[in-house]
Design brief:
single chain; about 270 residues; alpha/beta; eight-stranded mixed β-sheet; 9 helices
């Protein structure tokens, strides 16, 4: 295996010329499947909080997370980010990260931008290691209300306490924030759309959405339902915003655990996924 599979802080891997922090929980690849966590647009390893450890305990899977370049303790990136930064992450970085981690069987579990990256990867890269997708608050296209919420976040960063809060998690907090904010609020980004990735999925998918998410509506889930050719389960959470794993932790963890249990039982026994 290419990396040390341990739970300590300060682990780093070099991928695509950048040093990225990573962390592991539960059994190593080879002993069990691995959930690969892909964080949101302002996220990092630390912002998953205790959820990775809880997932490893509940599912029996290993859990692997990394902070993308520009986030957490990973190397910074040059700004502005290219407007196709999520596609670049999916095509150029995610596969080599999984190679370096020695991943053998994986479920990609992405949140927000991370869900979009997972979706693009599954629809663009032929990778037999990836057995399923779990997408929390995914984005396939922009929505006017979501863009307005991002602009409001910009105001809170410049004039409120958001910068101080995020600074606890990111070594280069301005890079983390403006790399995300300035891409999404660029006028040219209004036409961003990666929904064609859905057409190419051939693996089971669990999509989770908070009904009160300010950054995206059920239109994102409807897009999956309209286009998907593979098995789909959805969890729509009332009274939940943008972070189902934190706001509705028990329900979200239960859905993830059931999905993974059934998925890997299917792998072992060749039974229908319905």
């Amino acid at each position: 295996m290419a990396i040390a599979w341990d739970h300590g802080a300060g682990n780093r891997i070099d991928v695509a010329g950048q040093a990225l922090e990573y962390a592991c929980w539960g059994p190593a690849p080879g002993a069990a499947p691995t959930l690969v966590l892909l964080h949101e647009g302002l996220g990092s390893i630390a912002q998953w909080k205790d959820w990775p450890a809880a997932l490893a305990a509940a599912t029996g899977c290993g859990v692997f997370a990394y902070s993308r370049a520009g986030y957490g303790a990973s190397d910074p990136v040059a700004l502005p980010r290219p407007l196709d930064y999520m596609t670049r992450e999916a095509i150029e970085v995610l596969g080599p990260v999984m190679d370096a981690a020695g991943i053998e069987q994986a479920v990609l579990l992405g949140h927000s931008d991370g869900a979009s990256i997972a979706a693009i990867y599954a629809g663009s890269v032929s990778d037999m290691r990836v057995r399923g997708l779990i997408l929390m608050a995914p984005h396939f296209f922009t929505e006017a209300d979501g863009l307005a919420a991002i602009r409001q976040a910009g105001d809170a960063y410049k004039a409120g306490d958001l910068k101080e809060k995020l600074g606890k998690y990111h070594s280069n907090v301005d890079v983390a924030f403006f790399g995300w904010h300035d891409a999404w609020t660029d006028p040219a980004f209004a036409d961003w759309n990666v929904a064609d990735a859905i057409d190419h999925w051939r693996i089971p998918v669990l999509a989770i959405q908070g009904r009160d998410d300010p950054y995206g509506t059920l239109a994102q889930i409807n897009e999956i339902e309209t286009r998907i050719y593979s098995p789909l389960e959805t969890l729509i959470l009332d009274g939940c915003g943008h972070a189902p794993h934190l706001e509705k932790a028990a329900q979200t963890q239960a859905a993830v655990t059931e999905f993974c249990t059934r998925l890997f039982r299917l792998e072992r026994e060749d039974v229908p996924f319905d």
